[in-house]
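Table 4 source record.
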Amino acid sequence: MGITLPEALFDQAKRHASKDQPALLSFVTTLSRDVSPKELFQKAKTHFAGERFYWQNPDKTLKMAGLGVTKQFLADQTKDAYLELAERVKLLKRDTVTNATVKETGPLYFGGFSFDPERETDKEWQSFKDGLFYLPLFMLTERQDAQYLTVNFPVYIDDEYSKCEAVCNQWEKIIHSPLPKLEIHSLAAVRELEPEHFLDSAREVIDLIQESEELHKVVLARRMGMRFTSQVDSGAILEQMLATQENSYFFVLENGSAVFFGATPERLVSLADGELHSSCVAGSAPRGTTEAEDEQLGQALLKDGKNLREHHFVVEMIEATFKQFASELSLSSEPVLLKNRDIQHLYMNVHAKIKPDTNLLAVVEALHPTPALGGLPQKLALAVIRMKEKNDRGFYGAPIGFIDPDFEGEFAVAIRSGLIIDAMGVLFAGCGIVADSVPEDELKETKMKFQPMLRVLGGMEHE
């Protein structure tokens, strides 16, 4: 697992640097599969606690673990976070010297945006602001065909090659350190926060929709507070997510003592090789306790008018947005069931060929929030959410993922997620309110949506 950085690449980076601006050296090498991204994430706890991320796609064809922060983007709340990050990505391309030839290796930013930049950031989300992305020092990328290590660090014009040797030695220390024992946390308290406020808000929103010719749907979110007996180990959260959830994007994003994590079934958008892909996920039903009951619940969901309407809203909006940025759009013929451990959803795929100069971040900004997380029409629904929800959603329900210097990458919608700071945590769940919604049924749906992360954090061990 020892690595050596080529002197020629280092010399090229020195020539690329200027007196005022270092070059970024991004070196990629293949590795034997002696350590998985999950194991690397855990091994790096001692060296890089608070500076780690993990990402895995639903079909397990891509797993990434990032360690250390070589560059960080923290959104300035007076500016558009998407445009600001786009500028950073352009600079990344300008300043980088790399031997990367494989997608999802080399320099890339991983992180997320806030759900609603118009809202004032709550105290618990202060370290994330309207957007937090970082370029890792080390990144392990595991694809079906191979495993790759990326090393990213700045090179100044007067640097010596010994800097490369020091970085390689740092990698050696991490890789040869023992796998730490996971610290299993215990839940001291769990409390649903303000269910009565949610019911009142749902009733008010139903009245608004019934009285309005424009407003069709508003997604209301609520929270669950948690207290643990000790500081929570991100590695233990990751282990439990991978063990208990399926058909999901898995993500962990640390920033200091805060960790945002989730297992979301919903892709927002990906861009690779000139093709955009998105998924329309909306409508929910519980899983059955037997195969027969599960089949019955699934078939009922496929025929349920309210859920089919909610799903259709999402399909229409994503289709209309894609038409701004792409051509040759194709769509699944009808919804199918996407089954997770606790919940099943209606699901369809959309893909299209991009128009020239399409910027992935512009597509992400235009899509977010889809009617599955915001409502319809988008801006009016957001205005209602600001009035009815007391708390800032932070990164919940917002885009999370990665982007490379060619503006390719992938973003998921950060649902089935939670935020933990030291030994305090909060989980999020939302549901779509439409004209014929029943508030008590919507409250019940949010309880179901808390279950995946509640299970991950040990809140359902006696179930």
